[in-house]
Amino acid sequence: MLDNMLEFIPSIPLSEWTTRATDWITDKFAILFDPIKEHFGNFMEFTSEALLAVPAVLIILLVAVISFFITGRKFGLAAFSIVGLWLIYNQGLWEHLMSTFTLVLLASLLSVIIGVPIGILMSKSRIAEAIFTPILDFMQTMPAFVYLIPAVAFFGIGMVPGVFASLIFATPPTVRFTNLGIRQVSKELVEASEAFGSTGAQKLFKVQLPMARATIMAGINQTVMLALSMVVIASMIGAPGLGREVLSALQRAQVGPGFVAGVGIVILAIIIDRITQNMNKDKNA
Amino acid sequence: MILGIKPYFEGVRNLSIIEAKNLSKVFGKNTKQAVELLGKGLSKEEILKETGCTVGVNRATFSVDPGEVFVIMGLSGSGKSTLVRLINRLIEPTEGSILIEGDNLATMDKKELRNVRRDKLGMVFQKFALFPHRTILENAEFGLEIQNVPKEERRKKATEALELVGLGGYLNQKPSQLSGGMQQRVGLARALTNDPEVLLMDEAFSALDPLIRKDMQDELMDLQAKMQKTIVFITHDLDEALRIGDRIALMKDGSIVQIGTPEEILVHPKNDYVEKFVEDIDRSKVLTAQHIMKRPETVNIEKHGPRVALERMREEGLSGMYVVDSKRNLKGYVTADDASNARKNNINDLKEILTNNIPKVDKDTSLNDIFDLIHDAPMPVAVVEEGKLIGIIVRGAVLAALSSDSEVNMENA
Ligand SMILES: Nc1ncnc2c1ncn2[C@@H]1O[C@H](COP(=O)(O)OP(=O)(O)OP(=O)(O)O)[C@@H](O)[C@H]1O
Ligand SMILES: [Mg+2]
Fold first, then answer.
1. Predicted ipTM?
2. What does the pLDDT look like over B130-160, one tens digit per residue?
3. Residue at A9 is within a domain
4. By the 8 A CB rule, do B200 and B83 touch?
5. Taking CB atoms and a 6 Å cutoff, what residues make up the pocket around ligand 1?
6. Number of domains in chain A
7. Domain region containing A144
């Protein structure tokens, strides 16, 4: 009886609408999506092939050197990088590692390129903040898998939809932390730059962004980690890399290979995390 | 400076460099209604109740002359910071005008405003507001950097300004490596690098500890003597205001209650509020006659006549002297004129030319009471203890004592 009260109108065809909207976008924007798919896809393949062309020893050494200097001349991370990366190589996963790395790198780069300006916009305008905040909440709480569906619709399968899905999933922290970082700059410092006659751009680039740097970097670190996790999920839509090894091991119920590929992902995650975290610290301090 | 020597008041009065007319700032949503109510004379509190708006500054009208140190004083929340930020329009005025060298800042577009800020208005902040990611030199050159002055030139000027404040040796340090006093010097140098005509200083020394604070005040006065800037100085500290101000504006609840020289404010407080504010300075309560008196030059009525008195006055460059007996009991006062006449008329006894109508205070009299007395007195005030003369107080000493560092004065006690 009471349940009837909730049925005063028939079920709203929400999912149908979404499907139709996606179809419509796919159809209308094909002119846009197709070249992206093609050119960006080519570019990504090129990048990952270029990485493979470099001898693995060189890459391992380079990562070790970067780790050494970025952690303030400490050996810990450098040693871990050498052992970890060698292990991945030893397990015959090097090629997959390079694919995964390419995906993470490009997805994170795009997230930062898109995320930082949006964050700046939000910090400057209350209206922009009011508009973007709920969108960001939505982007972050929606289960990551859901993004794979429109990604496939727009870009087919492979690396490009993987990057697209990761972009939606991983950009919010960069936006949020950029906004937060700029808003946290002390009022007196902003006043000081204005009192000396700064233009808006001078205030932003000479005071606010440098002051917000540590906070923005913390956001970027989160973005990179989310991109990595998404890239693994994106193997479900054909993105190559370590994730695909895990997936195929899962499908065949092979504990061993699944575990090994998983360990490879963990090693990559630790190295990327520690390096991006340390970028944000003052090396002399 | 403190004794009210104000060169620009003599001679022709120059055009004001800052002129505020009916300048008001109301914070909140319904500012229009609030301004109307201000016009009707409602108080800050009533307006808050009626409209929910906070009155920051209430129809302030004043002008500042070139080279003047204009102090804005008031309790916390009285609107000092708001007022000083209206002067360079860091805060948009709700009503009224603010003229800088005749140009109305309130109606300028962004670009004009920027140019005025760059050329004419320097600012020093309470918490220094140095850029932590920049070195001392980079901080000091900031104002010129944003004007795209070539690097070499702006570094030279910034270095000069830093040398002026005694920080020539710290160019490549970061602000966090410097003490508070040094950081504020950097703040001052950063403002001076632009060579602005006006320095706006919002409680610039409040975050410093008392001794460093006094040093900074002295240094500012030295700089001011050299550079003749116009300074608008905010403080909530009467001591500081008296020390450095040529004129003082006292604020309460957003309104300017009184504007005047330190002497005017101390001697002729316009209303109870000012009086209370002035009374509240610790020094005037704590310090008494004995703290500020000088050793008196005297003549002995039992030994000396008008001739000796005259001779002693000539020696000391005085126009009169107190007369005591051998036990230093105060007998009276003798002026040079009277002594000279007496000598001509062959009068040999000081008793005949003594003035008995003299300003006298006990050694424990407070400065405030001495103030009233000394203002009209033609001679120094005598300080007595059980009838004995123990010291004299000259006019300037009272003001000087009110404004100078207490430790020095307490030593006499
Ligand atoms: N941004 C603001 N929004 C709302 N009200 C403000 C704002 N800034 C200042 N006020 C109000 O304006 C009044 C004057 O504040 P102001 O900061 O000018 O006082 P002040 O004399 O500088 O005080 P202090 O000695 O504490 O620095 C206060 O009642 C304050 O609450
Ligand atoms: Mg203030």
1. 0.77
2. 999 999 999 999 999 999 999 999 999 999 9
3. no
4. no
5. B 27, 54, 56, 74, 76-82, 236
6. 1
7. 16-278
